[in-house]
Design a protein that fits this description.
41% helix; 8-stranded parallel barrel; 8 strands; alpha/beta; globular
């Protein structure tokens, strides 16, 4: 699967109250290529149920499901995984999930972390945050220059994350981002139709 385009990331607060599945389906309908299920709660039964439903939707729309920080759940469902810096070894996850699984790693704004992810078998490297973000207000700031450097140094798809909007995404794509990962800019919407409209607009930036 070519890792290029819109990377949608769920947020349990934004998508509470029954919005998770309709809003995610709208994002997929609008062209999202990857969907990361991000839920930090300890309700394992609900997480399994939601992840299974999301896998079903991703299969229907030809997208790939990525689980945030839970290698066991990813292995159980046969889907991809995203690891933060404190979420365990990418190499161990690669051994667990096999050669073909999509596994990404958070590299903040550091090329050394990207080098390590590259060496440990990452499918993509994620840099951020680029702009002020609702999800991680205090994270270190990445720059457009960093994207240029990463693009020339690594032969891996590059994901940009952090405060990305339709207005600021084009400069990141121009600098080498293969995918833009979006949470609020996509899902902080009044309706599923609005989510689909935004997803189409983000997807169009890559054509």
């Amino acid at each position: 699967m070519k890792l290029r385009g819109l990377y949608a990331i769920t947020d349990s607060q934004l998508l509470a109250g029954g919005k998770l599945l309709p809003y995610v389906e709208a994002a997929l309908k609008g062209g999202a290529k990857l969907l990361q299920y991000r839920d930090k709660s300890n309700d394992e039964a609900r997480r399994l149920r939601e992840a299974e439903a999301l896998r079903e939707l991703c299969n229907r729309y030809g997208a790939a499901l990525i689980i945030n920080d839970d290698a066991e759940l990813a292995a159980r469902l046969g889907v991809g995984l995203h690891l933060g810096q404190s979420d365990g070894s990418l190499a161990v996850a690669r051994a667990l999930l096999g050669r073909n699984a999509i596994i990404g790693g958070t590299c903040h704004a550091e090329l050394d972390l990207a080098q390590r992810a590259n060496d440990e078998g990452a499918s993509y490297i994620a840099f951020g945050r680029f702009f002020n973000s609702n999800t991680k207000p205090g994270a270190p700031a990445a720059t457009v220059e960093l994207l240029n450097q990463a693009k020339s140094r690594f032969n891996l798809p590059i994901v940009a994350i952090g405060g990305i909007t339709l207005e600021n995404a084009p400069q990141l794509i121009a600098a080498g981002a293969s995918m833009v990962a979006v949470i609020h800019g996509l899902f902080a919407a009044d309706s599923a139709d609005e989510v689909e409209r935004r997803a189409r607009a983000f997807s169009a930036l890559f054509s």
